[in-house]
Specification:
single chain, globular, about 550 residues, alpha/beta, eight-stranded mixed sheet
Length: about 550
């Protein structure tokens, strides 16, 4: 640790920032690379803690003057811009929770999220304002939509009120994560959740040691817990500087790493695969990075990647729901490189592996909880508006992760597969039922079943078996369906393949037989009975 007080000794995310800003006022807090600045049309360079503190104070005063206060929620669609963190801090100072919005979401998804979260205000990039207003209107939510630089209007008078918790336990953010029931669940995350995430990372040690004033670079989205809780709060904990790119650009990645003077980086498994595909150059080791922190690296590539680029990768496991409360990581020198191992649980984390009958096993679903008097310390508070799902996730006093894991004789854990019906594409969790629900809105689609198929680069790809009427089963028809889907949901969720089928495999109660559907998708792919739409899966211009 750096000698700073532990963040969990403080009350809020803002308090943690303010204390670090007072100690490290002249240090850089946020850094914007020229490449990111050009894409966003913002200034490049570093923002010191002192400058950030002044901006946060001014923003906080504006929101307070407009009537925003404890218990309210403000939704944010700001992409990976540094203003996201400053606005979050300003609102947190007032006790206001934020609802991060994935900028890739489209009409149907935005309508659901806004209707479910019921924000008092939506802060968004001007190019997205019209779509968000339409989504709010469709959801029956009269939330004003304004740009970050606008004077905030008074909050919506009938906005949903965050829970009764106060202080550390008060809601700091409502993050939406894919679930198995179709629609994303809203995870209520407290100040404790974020404060402890910073402490956990700052105290990790081993290969993952963060030095005082560390510099971290990440291309991961700030609306996910990784960048928001792990990266940002860790830098607050050690008085460090965070460089957030707009996204991962393989060709310019190492130039940005060098330009940021990063000493550590965050990654998803798809990144090492892409970087290893590039030709070797003398500059491969021309950087200051000591370690990378992430998950899902291809075991066959890990050793070669570390040798080629001169840094060690710390594979880790966590979920939005668990936060750092049950985080597990392979950060010690005896880690098992190239084995899909994500480490051994620390003494403060209790784990079980259970088989289908709920009995302890060496291979099974991973159950986790915090050791000690509070088994939920550091975890999410609850699923918003869904107490049944919260109780189900915590059945028997353990959090059920839905991940299938293997344990060896030394206590090392190895990721095997996902029990949940979730497709994981390039680090994004995609609920098959959610995609099916959106596809079924198309007037010509009578039934749709979605399953994962393997993808050499992205892990899984979305495969849709479609029963259509009044349509000719052709490549042009599939392309038209994909183009329509792009208007309804995030690009990464739309089918990468569409196969037209006469019927879906169903149970006696008319539910999709998931195993049979997955087999059908694999068969269609192997027999070239599917239209390849992967080239259409591109981010949409606002």
């Amino acid at each position: 640790m750096t000698g700073f007080p532990r963040l969990c000794d403080l009350t809020s995310v803002y308090d943690a920032f303010a204390q670090t800003a007072a100690r490290c006022s002249d240090r850089p807090m946020l850094n914007v690379q020229p490449s990111t600045a050009e894409i966003y049309g913002i200034a490049a360079g570093e923002i010191t803690y002192a400058a950030a503190a002044a901006e946060v104070e001014a923003l906080s005063a504006r929101f307070a003057g407009a009537g925003y206060g404890a218990g309210m929620r403000v939704a944010l669609l700001l992409e990976n811009r540094p203003s996201y963190f400053l606005i979050w801090l300003a609102l947190n100072r007032l006790g206001v929770s934020v609802v991060p919005i994935n900028p890739d979401l489209r009409a149907a998804e935005l309508e659901y999220l806004i209707g479910h979260a019921e924000p008092a205000l939506i802060l968004a990039l001007p190019a997205r304002a019209e779509g968000l207003r339409a989504a709010a209107e469709a959801a029956g939510i009269a939330a004003p939509v304004v740009a970050p630089g606008d004077t905030p209007p008074p909050p919506r008078h009938d906005a949903a009120i965050a829970g009764p918790e106060t202080g550390q336990a008060a809601e700091a953010a409502l993050l939406y994560t894919s679930g198995t029931t179709g629609q994303p669940k809203g995870c209520v995350l407290s100040n404790t959740y974020f404060l402890y995430a910073g402490d956990w990372y700052a105290e990790l040690g081993g290969i993952g040691t963060l030095e005082d004033g560390a510099r971290m670079i990440t291309p991961l989205p700030v609306f996910h817990m990784n960048a928001m809780a792990c990266s940002f709060m860790a830098m607050i904990a050690v008085g460090g500087c965070l460089t957030v790119l707009d996204r991962f650009h393989p060709k310019s990645w190492w130039a940005d790493v060098r330009g940021s003077n990063a000493t550590c980086l965050h990654y998803l498994g798809v990144m090492p695969s892409m970087l290893m595909g590039a030709a070797e150059t003398p500059a491969d080791r021309d950087h200051q990075v000591r370690f990378g922190f992430g998950a899902g690296v291809d075991p066959k590539l890990q050793a070669g990647f570390e040798a080629r680029f001169g840094l060690e990768l710390v594979e880790a496991w966590a979920m939005t729901e668990t936060g750092a409360g049950a985080a597990i990581s392979a950060h010690t020198k005896d880690r098992l490189v190239g084995a899909a191992c994500f480490g051994r649980p620390a003494p403060e984390v209790e784990t079980r592996l259970v088989d289908a009958a709920g009995q302890d096993a060496d291979r099974g679903e991973l159950l986790v909880r915090r050791a000690g008097p509070d088994p939920r310390f550091g975890f999410f508070t609850r699923y918003f508006k869904n107490p049944e799902a919260t109780d189900e996730a915590w059945a028997g006093g353990w959090f059920h992760t839905g991940d299938i894991v293997r344990c060896d004789a030394d206590g090392n854990l190895f990721f095997i597969d996902r029990k949940k019906n979730v497709i994981r594409r390039s680090g994004e969790n995609i609920a098959a039922v959610e995609v099916e629900s959106v596809l079924m809105r198309h007037p010509a689609i009578r039934a749709a079943g979605v399953a994962p198929v393997p993808d050499a680069i992205r892990g899984d790809e979305v495969f849709a078996c479609v029963v259509a009427e009044g349509l000719t089963a052709s490549e042009l028809t599939a392309e038209a369906l994909a183009d329509w889907a792009l208007t309804q949901m995030a690009y990464y969720k739309i089918p990468g393949y569409i196969a037209f089928v006469e019927a879906l495999p169903l149970t006696a109660t008319q539910k999709i037989q998931r195993a049979a559907l997955k087999a059908l998708a694999a068969e269609c792919l192997a027999q070239n009975r599917a239209v390849d739409l992967r080239a259409r899966k591109r981010r949409q211009v606002a």
